[in-house]
Please model this.
Amino acid sequence: MKNIDRKTAGILAAVFPVVFNLLFFVLPLRRNATDWVCYAFIHIAYLMLVVSILYVGDNKEQYHNRAAVAMMVARYFFTELFIGVGLIVINRFVPFGMWLAFIAQILLLSIYFIITLTQMMANRHDESVERVRREEIHYIQACADLARAQMGKASGAKANKAIEQVFDKLRTSPSKTVPQAKEIEMTIYSAVSGLKADMDEQEILKSASSILSMIEQRNAILKSSYR
Model:
């Protein structure tokens, strides 16, 4: 979250406990252990909600995944608020032991905790997959950008054509990679980095030919791994 968002969230976060505690302590009620158990669980649920909202990340993938967790915690909070207030009211007319309230709310917390934990584990997997995908796309883009930066700058038409072929080959190559291709990908990146338009035309042609050959090898490795 941005700083201004955090400040706004902090102000909004203070509203519920202030209003709830005002009502809880101002109303002329005789509070017993059951009431305090409900009071504690309601505040625990609210604290979890505030933390889950602040936990939402800045990038798009994190925002959507963690917002889903925040919604799950919000459901738990409102359910707990309804049950907790309900037990406090019922306790006024039909007194019951604090252990009944404690066990009921522990069960509710456990159910939502397991559901939320499962959601968070799924989110972590999704974020890991998305991070790998971004890194893979970045590799191809970085290589292609290096080649594009040299396009049209060589002194000879053949050299410029060779650099353009390298760029086109990189641009149209698969972004998804496999561990077996990592070594040749590093070699390709190094070779493309060394491909300069001010080199001798024969050097450019030789270097471009070598790079195109390595790209073909990489693509062959990827193709065999996808089978």
